[in-house]
Amino acid sequence: MNVKQRNHRLRGGGTLIMGGLLGLMSLIGSANTPAKAASVVTPLPPNAYYAVQDGQLADLTATGMTAAHPLDRTTPTTWTATAQTDVPTATGQTNRYLYISSAQDGVQGWTAATNLRAGRTYQTTAPQAVKARNYVVVKSFKAAPVPTRKVYRLVGQRRAMHWQARASLQRDKTYRVTQRRTYYQAGKAYTYLRVTSGKTTGWVWQADLKRGTAYNVAHHQAAIKTKLQKYLNSVTKDGTAAVAFYNLTPVKGSRAAKAPHAAVYRQGKLAVNARGNHVTTSASTYKLYIAAYLMHLKQRHRFSWTHANRAGMTRMIVKSANDYPVSVLQRHGRTSINHWVTSQGYYGHPFSATRASRTTANSLVRVLKDLQLGQQAFTNQQDRAFILSLMKRQVYRRGIPTGVARADKGTVVRDKVGFLNDNNGDAGIVTLPNGQRYILAVLTWGRGQHGFSGYPRIARIAEHVQKIVY
């Protein structure tokens, strides 16, 4: 029954049917006695309301009111008011009632005006196209009474919408915005943006996003590793080289540590090697194992920094002299030292009385990592500082130090070289001027190398590694 039909039934020759109003008063509990005067039902232009408190929804008939159901049992929605009536009470006052219909399911009836507040709810405007732009998730979400922090699907017609969550917002994703629309809830307007990110599409509250493009740390790490791996594969494919790379966290407080995307360089996240486990002649790089073993003995109170030991360590590292490490091997035995080296996770059995010492590029990176991080045998800070100072002073600088200086002037290298017959190797800890740090081990052989002829090759490899990663 429409409003005009209801008004016609309520008016008989211009006189309002009192029985209907008395029934209405009885239903809503306005008074316990009949009103002294009847009020008139007045048509209204359609106005939007939403329920703010519990109340009764009722039907008005010519003979009285019949209850429909309580408002709080209806689906939250916008109600459209199209008529009003003022019902007198026994005390001479009046209560206003509105005739309303639900946008959600078309339910109609009368309810007290005090149960409603002007405004729309659970409704949206039509989507409007906007210039396509990239957005990212805000650093901190705001509290709101509307759906937030997720990508939603809107279901239904604009006059009666509801939400379905599709996916949580991800801080490492870029959301492409192409549309916007207004959503109303409890009389307030909220802007929602239509987003696309990969296979995810839907609507997001505008306050959850800001302009920008996400920097995907994992994606950039993977890209760097892929490029570096391809390069290392190319320089080792002929079987005459092995290379291992391990990135360290930047120096605390440095420009690199404070850079916007410093997380890309989290320790070990860019580690790559090519033929890293290939066993080859170590030449004098084995002296890193001797230094580690002596620091192990010092932990056991079986070694101390006598003048002779300090001088011997200095000759061994700075000038790569052999007398001191050979004396250590003879004094403690190759079998015992091999056993300890293996227990540390380094290359097992590097030392033999019948062949040259052996190693792998990965094993050299491991021992340098322990030295840099103060792990295993290198827990004493003063001992570490002494050994690293010797490595910074070592005199053979044509390999890694030369290459990385060409990549970035001012780069500092603490390294240990090895050269024997056609074997040239270099393993070091590299620190860039901006505070970035990494460990690199390059072992080469063959190709008619002799003396130091392989070091220009090592320098080229080191230069390109640094340019690729940093």
Automatic annotation (TrEMBL):
All residue ranges annotated as the Beta-lactamase class A catalytic domain in the record: 317-444
Pfam families, A to Z: Beta-lactamase2 (PF13354)
Look up the domain of life of the source: Bacteria
Q: Which InterPro entries match?
A: Beta-lactam/transpept-like, Beta-lactam_cat, Beta-lactam_class-A
Q: Which SUPFAM superfamilies match?
A: beta-lactamase/transpeptidase-like (SSF56601)
Q: Which PANTHER family match?
A: BETA-LACTAMASE, BETA-LACTAMASE-TYPE TRANSPEPTIDASE FOLD CONTAINING PROTEIN
Per its record, how is this protein called by name? Beta-lactamase class A catalytic domain-containing protein
Organism encoding this protein: Levilactobacillus spicheri
